[in-house]
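Standup notes, structure subgroup. Blocker cleared on the glutathione input:
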Amino acid sequence: MPDDLVLHVNKGFSSPYAFSAFVALKEKGLPFRLEVLDLDAGEHRRAPYDTQSFTGRIPALRHGDFWLAESSAIDEYLEEAFPAPGHPRLYPEDLRARAKVRMIQAFVRSDLLALREERPTSTFFGSDHPAPFTPAGRTAAERLVRIAERFLPAGAQHVTGAFTLADADLALLLQRLVYNRDPCPERLAEYARAVFRRPSVREWLSHTAWRDR
Ligand SMILES: N[C@@H](CCC(=O)N[C@@H](CS)C(=O)NCC(=O)O)C(=O)O
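Run returned:
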């Protein structure tokens, strides 16, 4: 097929970035194929993937002969290549709501390094047990709670009027606390759990060691 879609992910399905692109494809209702690379074996650094993917990282999307890396670029490409109303909208139509979604996606990818290191996805997509927080990890966890409270309006189920990819990304970030039973306000915990009940997310989870708790 000339326009087939292939998403390259990592063995173990632990990548939060591949998660975002996978959820985008699923929520759009697009047929696609998964190509699973063993990062421990260095498969992502071998030719031709290393150069075709530009960055030699996962995720990378191939759409026909077009290659794209960087999860947020993949998310936005899918939104524009398969637009509403023919396909579900994953970014809001409203300019400011769309900007908010992009802000949250950028925040999730660039901030809270200590939290991401001390509560890696292997503690919920895999079977690793978390160690107690260092002061830096605890500070990052508290910062996440404070900022997520601002992102999620009171009484809302989503950060904007309907589900967007910011919800998928933010819910995964919150699961670093929720799944590991670290302090997290119930409102945020329930939000993260609800997003993780979406069929698109459940399908990702089915590839991982996730256990409902
Ligand atoms: N900014 C990139 C990050 C991608 C990334 O860091 N992927 C990791 C897996 S989570 C990877 O490929 N690591 C292998 C390596 O860097 O050698 C995105 O948003 O897609």
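Discussed briefly. The chain is about 45% helix and 10% strand.
Next: hand off to the docking folks.
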